TrEMBL record:
<dbReference type="GO" id="GO:0046872">
    <property type="term" value="F:metal ion binding"/>
</dbReference>
<dbReference type="InterPro" id="IPR024344">
    <property type="entry name" value="MDMPI_metal-binding"/>
</dbReference>
<dbReference type="InterPro" id="IPR017517">
    <property type="entry name" value="Maleyloyr_isom"/>
</dbReference>
<dbReference type="InterPro" id="IPR010872">
    <property type="entry name" value="MDMPI_C-term_domain"/>
</dbReference>
<protein>
    <submittedName>
        <fullName>Uncharacterized protein (TIGR03083 family)</fullName>
    </submittedName>
</protein>
<dbReference type="InterPro" id="IPR034660">
    <property type="entry name" value="DinB/YfiT-like"/>
</dbReference>
<dbReference type="Pfam" id="PF07398">
    <property type="entry name" value="MDMPI_C"/>
</dbReference>
<feature type="domain" description="Mycothiol-dependent maleylpyruvate isomerase metal-binding">
    <location>
        <begin position="15"/>
        <end position="152"/>
    </location>
</feature>
<feature type="domain" description="MDMPI C-terminal">
    <location>
        <begin position="169"/>
        <end position="263"/>
    </location>
</feature>
<dbReference type="Pfam" id="PF11716">
    <property type="entry name" value="MDMPI_N"/>
</dbReference>
């Protein structure tokens, strides 16, 4: 265990999710590694490569020297190009090579996290720039757990929607709701938007917009909200992570109230890079 108790919940959640990924992919035959996922242009192999690559960078390993092909049409930004290098360099790797590298990376990162003695607020440099150790680890929990769910959908192996990683991911995603509602969807001043989420991870949250147009998140029930969005947790995740467009899951989202506002919220719901 780390000497910093504040890091332990995130370390435990990361461990749970990345070991779940290892358990999912270890028995796969070669062809199953090529199954498409909800991530544009990425197969099961590519998702696992991405997870390995980010963890290796946090271990301090040098980035691969690799030129990307020009026909990767899902790569549309500099950040996407940065991420794609770790993915494309492993596209020729066999199933045993993938599973052995994943297992070795988990061992190395687990040891690193177990021996983390620095203050959690120490700023470190990672793939996403300079962030505190605590924020970096929390972001890794979100990324690894969301990709675990990508793999589960691709392989038709549902599960862990209420795991420790799910809870941390929910809390991170909820922090974006005030900006989504108040700034991006431009909800009217002195209005409220309610999110009623069911399933393995149930919760209800209200975003209240004040007279100045600023949003604030709370867990209280709102009387007479402008709109209430009712949906299941997996659909919430897929929308927030940009895995699906709102119109594709319209039958899974119940809207009560101001429909144009609800559609504006859903159109701006994706918050992960």
């Amino acid at each position: 265990m780390t000497v910093h108790p504040s890091l332990q919940p995130a370390i435990d959640a990361w461990t749970h999710s990345i070991e779940a990924i290892s358990e999912l992919v270890t028995p796969l035959v070669e062809g199953e590694w090529n199954r498409a996922t909800d991530c544009p242009g990425w197969s099961v192999r590519d998702v696992v490569s991405h997870v390995i690559g980010f963890e290796c960078e946090l271990l301090g390993d040098p980035r691969p020297i690799h030129s990307l092909p020009r026909d990767l049409y899902h790569v549309t930004s500099e950040f996407a190009r940065y991420v794609e290098v770790q993915v494309d360099v492993r596209r020729c790797h066999t199933a045993p090579e993938m599973t052995s590298e994943l297992e070795y990376t988990i061992i190395r990162r687990s040891r690193q996290l177990r021996n983390e003695y620095r203050d959690p607020e120490t700023i470190i440099r990672g793939p996403l720039g300079e962030r505190s150790i605590h924020r970096t680890l929390t972001t890794r929990v979100l990324d690894v757990w969301v990709h675990e769910q990508d793999l589960r959908r691709a392989l038709n192996k549902p599960g862990n929607l209420d795991s420790p990683g799910a809870s941390i991911t929910r809390d991170v995603l909820l922090k974006s709701l005030p900006e989504v509602v108040a700034k991006k969807a431009k909800a009217p001043a002195n209005s409220a938007v309610v999110f009623d989420v069911s399933g393995p991870l149930e919760f209800m949250r209200t975003v209240r917009v004040d007279a100045e147009g600023n949003g604030k998140l709370d867990a209280s029930v709102s009387l007479g909200p402008a709109v209430t969005l009712s949906l299941d947790w997996e659909t919430y995740l897929r929308l927030a992570a940009g895995r699906v467009r709102p119109e594709a899951v319209a039958d899974k989202v119940k809207i009560d109230g101001d429909r144009p506002l609800a559609e504006a919220v859903l159109a701006n719901f994706a918050v992960t890079p």
